[in-house]
Structure formats: structure tokens, C-alpha cells
Amino acid sequence: MTFLKRVLALTAVLAVLAIINGLAQPLYIHVPYSDLEAADNDDRDYGPAPLDRPFVGLAFSGGGARAAAFSAAGLVALTRTQVPLDDITHISSVSGGGFTASYLALHPPTGCTGPEDTAGCDAYLAQILAQVAPPSFYALDLRQARHPWRILSPSRRLVSLTEELDRADFLAGRTFADLPTDRRYYFNTVSYDTGQPFVFSNAILPDAAADAPGALPPELRSLSFSTDGTARSSPASLSLSLAVATSAAFPPYLGPTSIEWEKDKTFWHLGDGGIVENTGLATLIEAAHASGATAATLYVFDGGQRLDQAASIAARDISVFSSQMERIVDILNIFGGVWRTYALERVAADAGITLDVKTFSYQDIARAPETFPDWAAWPAGGWMRCDAGDDTPATRLLAIPTRLSITDCNRDLITAAAEALVAAAFAPPTETTDAPETPQPPSDGN
User: Fold this and answer.
1) What is the pLDDT of residues 90-105, one digit of tens each?
2) Prior bond to 84 cis, omega within 30?
């Protein structure tokens, strides 16, 4: 018995040491100062906006594979109506929405350019959904099993995610140098050091500490690689998968990423951008202000979940320190995101920028079941992918969880929701006068 106790005690000590070792291992990225100097001197067109055409932006929210599928379907649905992809000048993404944005940047559609390209758009939608919203992440799980120390470190688990994103049919090890220069991409994260948004981008945002005439208040600006009064894009050598994975590093399960500045040996610690603003809209408004644009048309695809007040107040207890730790982040996001976006909208108005914002939220259509078909009206055979039970399509839609993978049924539902919302927004006017839309708060960080 004494021997058994010693074995158990030794096992417990080793387990504690393993956990401590895992938690103490950050995802550590070294950024040479030479890379920053190269970003200063890059002769490519990295200006804040292509001012030779109207400012048209897309915002892809966070929300795991659900948000990735919703934004992908929304993108294709816009192309099928009257917003060709070539008209889009800026794309801002958060967390799961970054999967769609990065795939689009490196694998743009060739046969889906307008309403007449039905077959091409169908093919591209199937192609992008297969990559950004898969039914499983077996390869990711396998990498975790091959490197068990990663399981114990939230930061090191990001390595497995970056490797999965870097597979040959997705990002394939590409860097910011490989992003197209005719469109601006913003991958939103948050600084754990200051509480401000931090943006990876092939565009230039002003130094957050700059004090130039007409500049935004420092509290409303995003951090970026622009420092010391110097405007920089993200270094061309920076891994695209790192930016996308960091944007999706939801605490406490993933992250943070630690970036060392060679110049002064300091570190930046970055995580999921949805902590402070989950839609990506605020960054587009900030970019419009920085560009000098006088007008901006912005389409927001919000695939994030809002807090369910009815379910919450019906529960005797909520486990904010165990199974529902993300609720604390949700609360911070709702309050901070609403106020930052509101403040930026007011600043834009004061600067004479006309904003036309169209927001599409899958939860809006799910809470209006009469606008969403029942199973009998579902596309032929589609219902067979769903174990419907007593659920309607609308109730099933609301129950889609926030994960890196998504079932075929849920992917069909979220795709149909995006298509229905875009179709309704661009439908010809009818004889009756519809009631004005009620503004909805942005989604939380899930």
C-alpha cells in the first residue's frame, strides 16, 4: 500500500509539473526590426484606401465555423444580387470570419462574378464552405495527439490551429506579402496589454499614439504595427495563418500570441478580437476615417450569438467560473463593442462621412420563423441531413453551437439563412410599406 501511495503521489507531482510546464509555454513570435524597416520602405500600394473607387466594405464576424459559413454564404449571395466582388475595397474579419476572409484573399472565385454566373457561384460556395466550415477537424485533433504538451498550453494549441490553416488547400504557408494589393484586409485581435483592438493588415492605419489634426481620439484607435509616429502595414514576412489563428484565440481555451519587438525587447500579447468588438464593423469605420473617404457602404455579416436573456433568467444558477466562463467575455464585448462602434459612428458623422450600414444577423431570421421555411419546404432532400425531431429550422438555427467545425445540417441552415437575408434586403419594393428595422445590438464574442 505504501508503494502504491508513492506511485500515486509521484504521478500527481508529474501531472502538476506537466500542467505548469504547458501553461508556461507561450506561442512566441520574434519580429526582427529589419522586417519593420522593410514595412516602412515597402513600395507596394499599402495606402489606407483605393480612393479611385467608392469605399465598399464587408465585415465578417466571429462565431466559429457558424460565422465562417454565414459570411461565406453571404458573400456569394451578394455577388448573386448586385454587389460584385470587384466592388469590395475593404474586408474586416474577426475570429471565424477570418477563415472566410483569408480563403477569399488567396482563392478568389473565377466563375462567380455576377447574377448570371449561377453554376460558378454554386461551385465556389461549395468550395469555400468545405474549407472554412468543415464537419470535423480530425487533422487538428491528430496534431494535438502527436504533440501532447500542446494540450496543456492554450498558447501552444494555437500552433496546431496555424498548422491546420496552413494546409496546402487553404493558406499553404502564405504571408502578408501574398495578399492582393487591390483590396484591404483587416484581421482583428485584441491587445491583452492595453485593452485596445490590434489589427493585422495589408493596409496602413495611423499610429494609435499619433496626435495629428483630425485624428481619432486615442481610445478609439486600433493598435497595429504603426508605432513611433511611423505608419506601417503588417510585415510582409508575417504568417497569414498566425494572424487568423490569433484573431480566433478565444480565452481561456486558446492563446495568447506573444510578439517580441526586437528593437526594445518588449512583448505584445494578443488574442481573440471578439473580446472587444465581434462584428468587425468598427475597424471599417476607422479605416474609412483614415482614408479620407466621404462615404462608405458597409455590409456586416453577424454570425455571432447574443446572450439569451430568456434562458438565463429562467435558470437558477449560471456557471460563470466553469462551463460558462465565456459569459464574462460576452458581457464585456456587448458593452465595449456597442460604445466603440457608436462613438466611431458619431466621429464619422462629425467628419462628414456618410455611412450606409447593412447588417445581416442569422438570429434575426431565426426569431422570425414565418420568414424561414419549415422542413416541408426545405430544398429537396436537404431535410434528410438533419435529425429534426421536434425542432423547426428556426429553432435549430438558434441552437447551432460555436465551434471550429459544423455539421452538414447546421451548415445548410446557416447558408440558407444568409441567402434569405440578402435576398430580402435586395428584393424589389412592394406595394405595402414595411415597418422600419429595429436596430439590433452587435453579437457577443461567441
Assistant:
1) 999 999 999 999 999 9
2) no
In this structure, what C-alpha cell is assigned to residue 340?
466603440
Single-letter code of the amino acid located at 371: T
Q: Is residue 15 part of a domain?
A: no
**Sign of the alpha-carbon torsion through 186, 167, 302, 197:** negative
> How many domains is the chain partitioned into structurally?
1
**In this structure, is residue 443 part of a structural domain?**
no
Residue recorded with cell 420568414: 371
Least confident stretch, 77-81, 172-176, 340-344: 340-344
pTM: 0.84
In a domain, 13, yes or no: no
The amino acid at residue 35 is D
Cell 448570371 found at: 116
pLDDT tens readout for residues 241-277: 999 999 998 887 787 888 887 767 778 889 999 988 9
Q: What are the pLDDT digits (tens) for 215-233?
A: 777 777 888 888 776 777 8
SS (HEC) of the chain: CHHHHHHHHHHHHHHHHHHHHHHCCCEEEEECHHHHHHHHHCCCCCCCCCCCCCEEEEEECCCHHHHHHHHHHHHHHHHHCCCCHHHCCEEEEECHHHHHHHHHHHCCCCCCCCCCCHHHHHHHHHHHHHHHCCCCCHHHHHHHHHCHHHHCCHHHHHHHHHHHHCCCCCCCCCEHHHCCCCCEEEEEEEECCCCCEEEEECCCCCCCCCCCCCCCCHHHCCECCCECCECCCCCCCCEHHHHHHHHCCCCCCCCCEEEEECCCCEEEEEEEHHHCCCCCHHHHHHHHHHHCCCEEEEEEEECCCCCCHHHHHCCCCCCCCCCCCHHHHHHHHHHHHHHHHHHHHHHHHHCCCEEEEEEEEHHHHHCCHHHCCCHHHCCCCHHHHCCCCCCCHHHHHHCCCCCCCCCHHHHHHHHHHHHHHHHHHCCCCCCCCCCCCCCCCCCCCC
- The CATH number linked to 225 is 3.40.1090
The CA distance from 74 to 292, in Å, is: 28
Task: Find the farthest-apart pair of alpha carbons in the chain and give their distance in angstroms, rounded.
Answer: 86
Does residue 164 lie in a domain region? Answer: yes
Mean pLDDT of 422-435: 73
Q: Are strands 55-60 and 295-302 parallel, antiparallel or unpaired?
A: parallel
Report cis status (omega within 30 of 0) of the bond before 108.
no
Residue 207: which domain range? 29-425
Give 25: exposed, middle or buried? Use CB within 10 Å, 0-12, 13-18, 19+: middle
